[in-house]
Amino acid sequence: MEVRPDRLTVARTEGFVVFIVGARINKWWLVPIVFGVAAAMQRMLAQLAADPDSGLLSVESFTGRTTMSVQYWRSIDDLLRYARDKEKEHAPTWSRWLRSWGLGGAVGIYHETYVVAPGSYECVYQHMPPFGLGRLGPMVAAEGDLRTAAGRLAAGARRGVAAAAA
Fold first, then answer.
1. In order of start, what are the domains of the chain with their CATH numbers?
2. What is the pTM of this model?
3. Residue 124: how many CB atoms within 10 A of its CB?
4. What is the DSSP letter of 28?
């Protein structure tokens, strides 16, 4: 990805959902469980990437003893619909977690969900390729009123009010 030297921010008028999900290896010697959980997460991400109507807008993943996937979703309804759909990868994986993988503590799991209203966030990127919320855009120059975090929050709040009135 191309590094963009300019100082940028995101000027979205739509809300979105940030879903942070991951796992922590507690007992690395229980390799089959560790690999099973990791493979299931990869299958879910591949399934979502192959379905542009799923509502998943972007994802950034980080690995190590504790893994993290930061996902941006179009709406909470899209995220919950995927989680509950028995024809999709998550529901059978969750069932397996409850029946076997989650019983011995070999791997811990977590998730956090944030529903973000239009105009209630701020961000800045410089010398970065498109990343995180910046992959959703639209990207605009972080100049003038958008130069500071306080200015970006105020401008976002104005955009959020205008979007709600439309």
1. 8-13+117-165 (no CATH), 17-115 (3.30.70.100)
2. 0.90
3. 16
4. T
